[in-house]
Amino acid sequence: MLFKQLLIQKSYSDRIRSHKRNLKRNVTGSAFCFALMLLVFSTITVLSTQSVYAQQDTTAQTTTDETAATTDGADAAAGASPEVIAQGKELFDGNCAQCHAVHKKVVGPALNGAEGRWGSRAATINFIKYPERTINSGNAYAKKLYDEYQQYMPNHDFFKDEQVAAILDYISTVPVPTAAVAATGGDTGGGGQEGGTANSGLLLGIVIALIAILLVVALVLVVLTSVLSNYLKREKLEEDENTVVTQSIFDFKAFFTSPGFIGVVLFVLVAVGAKELFAGLWTIGVQQGYAPTQPIKFSHKLHAGLYEIDCKFCHSGVEKGKSAVIPSANVCMNCHGELRRGSPEIQKIYNAIEKNEPIQWVRVHNLPDLSYFNHSQHVKVGGIECQTCHGEIQEMEVVQQVSLLTMGWCINCHRQWDVNAKGNDYYDNLIKLHESTSKEPLKVEDIGGLECSKCHY
Ligand code: HEC
Ligand code: HEC
Ligand code: HEC
Ligand code: HEC
Ligand code: HEC
Ligand code: HEC
After folding, report:
1. pTM for the predicted model, two decimal places
2. Alpha helices in 174-190 (DSSP H)
3. How many CB atoms lie within 10 A of CB 305?
4. Amino acid 52: pLDDT
5. At the topology level of CATH, where does 71-176 sit?
6. For ligand 5, is residue 347 a contact (CB within 6 Å)?
């Protein structure tokens, strides 16, 4: 055998001693440490990639585990026109996609086949508009859902029934994704995200391969050490050498106190901590659904909906600067100097003006001070409708925060939204440049919309 010859050839004592010690202490110890480290690192990578994509995977439905096709839903949608479905998709993306995907559980359940589970379209619409009320009404299925998810989905009472129906029509047309769709980028326009999921599949493969290699290496090491010690046991050795050889193959005490092992443990703690922190930041201070009672019963449904008063008439800041501005009592007086003077609610406006105190409106939307958001950049330059971010305000009696307003929410849109380049020479050049390198339209991401300093002071 190779080892035997090798060992005989060398002058015995020195060589073997160093050989054995190396093998036992260093090789085994550090190989195990290295192996552990690789394993832990790759598992964490996969876990965090998957959780990040799970959060973002709102429009792209890429699971393949659901084979039950939505044929019943497809029938229901057979009558719906493409315009209705397009409207449904827009409403879904704007209001539901933070929490739902069609074929995949996100914050809330996968929505395919929901109508079947509720029994009828009317019951489904009613639940979507008033989830809390439905759950508390004693409906057994609603109760079961609540027990599983432990939260109330926010009310969607600002939607008309037809709008919710359009969302349901859209949902029933979303095809069950197949592996091929995930691999090629799909047709939902969320190419980047689907690529991400495919990526994490690849990562998983790499990790499995790594683990296999590590197992083989460990096995070879164990065999090597035992062959070597068996051989040496049969040789005549000096006393101190004998103790080294007959020691157990793996010295646990030395292993657990070795700097390598302590390093790995510290590394794991730091990595897990960082991941938790990251996940926490993603959802920090979420106040979706917040709808405080205001000091005056001011109704957007009446003013902006029924009387169609332009948002900008009252929120005069939206095109000029950072803040949209809440109108002062004087703005109300433009109309209420005459209109419904006797009403007790209107009386409150007079009181405020007489005492020269502002009306104490309770703020609904509120980003922390460390972040910077500018209305004119989004409304005027970006050409984005108020409703994209604030929901159907003109249907609300009481203003409610519809969007998440988290950093993930801002960034998700910046990844997906095409820059509005109409009549803007500056963008014409940028777009030409961009088109020479990419087939995708120019996104906010491409003009620096993901840079920390753009949103943080
Ligand atoms: C803030 C997260 C959130 C948003 C936004 C949201 N949902 Fe939900 N949804 C949930 C949760 C959580 C549940 C589970 C039921 C519960 O606990 O209230 C749910 C349940 C449902 C169900 C019942 C599913 C089933 O399997 O029976 C439907 C249907 C539904 N949502 C539709 C919608 C639609 C349509 C929208 C957009 C207009 C929407 N949801 C927006 C969180 C949300
Ligand atoms: C007649 C004046 C008026 C019009 C028109 C109006 N608003 Fe308002 N808006 C107010 C007042 C007053 C408040 C503060 C009280 C409240 O929150 O209801 C407010 C609050 C808001 C808030 C919440 C602000 C916060 O505290 O975070 C949003 C968002 C909003 N309006 C959007 C709109 C949109 C979008 C439109 C057009 C569809 C619109 N408003 C039309 C007067 C108006
Ligand atoms: C462009 C005109 C206009 C402006 C500006 C306006 N309103 Fe009105 N408001 C109306 C009209 C129209 C009605 C409905 C009157 C009716 O039902 O007879 C109304 C009704 C109301 C009512 C219900 C009164 C009641 O008791 O039925 C309240 C409260 C109210 N407005 C508050 C406000 C406040 C607060 C502001 C300022 C932020 C404001 N309005 C600005 C036109 C206006
Ligand atoms: C791209 C998303 C987006 C669009 C589009 C948008 N808003 Fe906002 N709006 C926000 C955010 C985010 C806040 C919270 C800002 C903060 O706290 O600094 C906000 C806050 C507000 C407020 C509270 C007062 C203030 O300025 O902070 C009002 C009122 C308002 N928006 C009205 C409007 C109106 C009216 C439009 C349409 C002309 C509109 N918004 C369009 C995201 C948007
Ligand atoms: C509905 C989509 C949407 C959402 C949500 C959104 N943005 Fe934007 N944002 C845009 C668009 C579109 C532009 C590009 C405007 C332009 O052409 O300059 C933009 C531009 C910006 C810019 C300037 C970037 C640059 O490179 O000049 C900042 C800063 C910004 N957004 C901050 C925010 C913050 C903070 C939030 C979340 C509170 C947010 N945005 C949410 C669509 C969005
Ligand atoms: C498109 C805008 C945008 C970009 C780009 C952005 N952020 Fe944020 N960030 C926000 C908003 C908005 C919040 C507040 C979210 C909330 O309150 O839920 C936030 C919150 C945070 C917080 C949490 C602070 C706290 O309240 O504890 C940290 C930390 C942070 N961002 C770091 C970063 C870093 C680092 C980058 C660059 C890689 C970055 N952000 C890029 C918009 C942005």
Report:
1. 0.59
2. 179-184
3. 17
4. 40
5. Cytochrome Bc1 Complex; Chain D, domain 2 (1.10.760)
6. no
